[in-house]
Amino acid sequence: MSKKDLTLHTNQNLLGGIELLWILLGLITHNWPIFLFIFITSIMLKVIFGKIKYTLVGKIVSMKFLIFRILVYSLLIINQFYLHMDLISYLIVT
User: What is the DSSP letter of 94?
Assistant: First the structure.
């Protein structure tokens, strides 16, 4: 394993650990169903697409899920500090 691969692997594990901590802390907030959905979806995608992770299909699925997670996390942060909406009620009613 080259130094570049080791650095990439270390950074990926660090970011994954931070995201896992974020999700676990999110499970004790009012928006816990959203965090639970992301957590379960993430596990399901890793199980389903684990063997094709480095193929074109695996890369496309992982990039789309990454963009989805970034958008959801951004919405949660903006909602916490600016919008102050009850997202769970809004998602259930709509």
Answer: -
